[in-house]
Amino acid sequence: MEKKPIVVIAALDVEFGFLKEKLEDLKISKINQYTFYEGLINNYPIVICCCMVMGINATIATTLAIQKYNPLAIINEGTAGRTWIKHS
Predict the structure, then answer these.
(1) Segments forming the whole domain that contains residue 46
(2) pLDDT confidence of residue 17
(3) Is residue 82 over pLDDT 70?
(4) Cβ atoms within 10 A of the Cβ of 63, count?
(5) What is the pLDDT of residue 81?
């Protein structure tokens, strides 16, 4: 049985660059404007996606990752960002 990957989604390259450098057997896949970096870390499949800033981008990238990779887990890193709420 093939292992299901772990997907890491981050808004900016700076948030996952160190992890991307560790990927072995790197393969790059693009779906629309979303780039997915597929590879192995310690012989385990990892997929990394840079979704860019904004919650909707994280949502779209997550949905695409679920559809394409059927992952074991998804880690959304750095998606909290800033939220400005105007109080009356």
Answers:
(1) 6-53+60-74
(2) 82
(3) no
(4) 10
(5) 53
80 belongs to a structural domain = no
DSSP code string of 17-41: HHHHHT-EEEEEEEETTEEEEEEEE
pTM here?
A: 0.82
Return the CATH number at 12: 3.30.720
Neighbour count for residue 41 (Cβ, 10 Å): 13
Domain count within the chain: 1
Q: What is the residue whose two structure tokens read 């310690």?
A: 42
Which amino acid, residue 34? Y
Cα 61 from Cα 77, distance rounded (Å): 12
pLDDT at 79: 52
Q: Is there a domain that residue 19 lies in? A: yes
Cα separation, 12 vs 57, in Å, equals 11
End-to-end CA distance of the chain: 56
pLDDT of residue 46 exceeding 50: yes
CA distance 46 to 76: 13
